Description:
- The protein is α+β, with helices and mostly antiparallel strands.
- It contains eight helices and 24 strands.
- It has helices at residues 87-94, 195-224, 245-253, 272-283, 314-329, 342-351, 360-374, 420-435, and strands spanning 2-5, 15-21, 28-29, 34-39, 44-48, 53-58, 65-67, 71-76, 115-121, 131-137, 144-145, 150-155, 160-164, 169-174, 181-183, 187-194, 233-234, 287-288, 380-383, 388-391, 397-398, 401-403, 406-408, 411-412.
- A hairpin with a 4-residue loop joins β4 and β5.
- The protein starts with a strand and ends in a 10-residue tail after the last helix.
Amino acid sequence: MNELKLPEIGENITQGTVTKILVKVGESITKGQNIIELETDKAVVEIPSNMEGVISEVLIKTGTVVKIGQPIFQLGVSGVIANEVPQPIKEEIASSPSAPINETIPAATNISATNVETNMNLPILGENLEKGTITKILVKAGDSIKKGQNILELETDKAVLEVPSPSDALIKEILIQNGAVIKVGQPIFKILSSVTKQSSYSVIASKAKQSIKEEIASSPSALRNDTKYESVVHMPIRKDVAAAPSVRLFAREIGIDIGQVPGSGPGGRISIDDVKKFAKALNTGRVQVPATAGQKLLPDFSKWGSLRREPMSNVRRKTAEHLSSAWNSIPHVTQCDKADITELEKLRKASSTQTRKLSITSYLIKIIAIGLKKYPQFNASVDMNTNEVVLKDYINIGVAVDTDRGLLVPVLKNVDRLSVIQISDELSAMAERARNRKTGIEELQ
């Protein structure tokens, strides 16, 4: 049996909700064939298979939240994946910064099958998500739960999400309560589960952790000859990096942000070896991730009168952090002028029909495109890693669309090549897709 896992979907997308399963048990599938329909935070997308085989078991169901790298089907193919580290151990290791491990550790044998009491810990939520606030507990003491069943609702920095169980179990005691802030790896339930899995996992975990200790112990000498990490270095965090999906998955499984890893390949491409070296350097303190810039303290407002303080929600706090980051990293220039648009309004109204009403936004987008064409330095980025200015020959403009999920910003591509009427038509279609959750991932990038 081979496990078919949810592949990489797009940059910064770590999970989604299954809206439709497009294949069934016994069906033969080929590479590139669409197998499920998944709703992410931004759009509904069809996921193609990256393997060939016959579906022997469906491990997911409609409505469940699945994560990148999570098994979704069992494939009946020749050969068996033997001695793979079980997912709970991968999650345990990924939840704490540690060196990469060899994922082909021998499995345990001759294990008795009795029930034992153990803790169920909060599993990995997604890349860069370390904690959340409990908004709802979906199970109670005495419930039998299945692997993949949603067990609680958690509000993170980005959204409210449902957390699935990492294993089958019987809940003996609830260790958390609504409103509490919990971290990845923190115990949430006392459970009864089969010792068959637990003992097997404990043997594998022991060997995995021993492998980690050996790699960490050997890393100082290995790093002495690595010029990238001769001393403690503060690594910048990059958004767009060159790395294969398998490398991104490996980095995520061991708790490393791929945007912090320096690449040794052509054009700075990141390999698995680069991720391993970075993990070793992180463990020995030779590399550090930059801390958030200190916030200016507010004055004591109470000396001017009474006041009230209300805690920010996670979503609002994250929004504030992103806006602060944008203000610090993007040059802001404001210029105010008055313009007489009487003639433009006449043209807009004369060009509109009963079936197509041109908006002022369509004209503004076209005007911006003309301006960027004339002054290309405003359509540029600065690459401080190479000390170069990146001038773009294309003009893409994002337009905010108000939806029931909040503001989405789909992107109009090659606007300079479109007429005002074409921009208006595409703008209307784009807004309609966004409101109906049909926006594609590429349209948001």
